[in-house]
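Entry, Tuesday afternoon. Goal for today is a structural model of the target with zinc ion bound, before we commit to ordering more compound. Inputs were pasted exactly as handed over by J.K., no edits. I checked the ligand SMILES twice against the vendor sheet because last time a stereocentre got dropped in transcription.
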Amino acid sequence: MAREVQVEGVVLRRGYIGEYDKWVSFLTPEHGKLRLRVRGARKPKSKMGMLTEPLNRLKARVIEGRSQRLIVQPQLIRSYVSLRADLERLSVALALCETLDRWLPEEHAEPEVYATLIVALEALEAGAPAEQAAAWALWRWLAMLGYCPEVERCGKCGKALLPSAPLFEDENERTHNIALIPADGVVLCSRCAPQREEVMLTPAALKLLQQWLQGERLNSDARPETSRSLMRAALGYAECVLESPVRWLEFWERLNTLRENG
Ligand SMILES: [Zn+2]
């Protein structure tokens, strides 16, 4: 990286250093994830401090110091005001940022991962269902980072996991359940799957997953249960293959329980 570069990116996470400073984990398309120091960010009324909070999309200069990098002159591109006003969408957006912060190594450019984050944030800002946006982004990231299993054919017998005929909503879902086996990184058909599985997918969920991995964007007509099952599947799978527990699932379940209980 040059001594001084102009970058754009999203603040994934932040922490504190020293009395007045903080550090941010900043995801950029060209340089990947960078850990940057923000000087004076915690002084009262610091504009720098406000601008460098998680979720903000910024343009800024990065200066290479002797032992660390500094972010200076941030300019706000997007602050996602509308998603911040909704607890569910805000928690999903922050969770996606935190997940990327854990998954990505430093200084490894992943422009598509960045582009997917922006699409997900814009979708949440426009009011897209939170679980669907989360599931969509997580599965696409798993695929981009090389962790996604084959989802078209059974990992054991090689047969197509879904019939070529169109699926019906009520199609005997129980007998057609498809099993995702995180430990082996495979998806198995109902005949090959062992009796008890950690993650089961309905044919409708697998169909949606196939479409997403083929590049389709978020679908407004997907059923909430389908999105939710894909989100849980992505997290269960990620926890196993990346060996990084995704803590926010617990928070998510608590939020759902609160909502269901009114
Ligand atoms: Zn099979």
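The longest helix spans residues 224-241.
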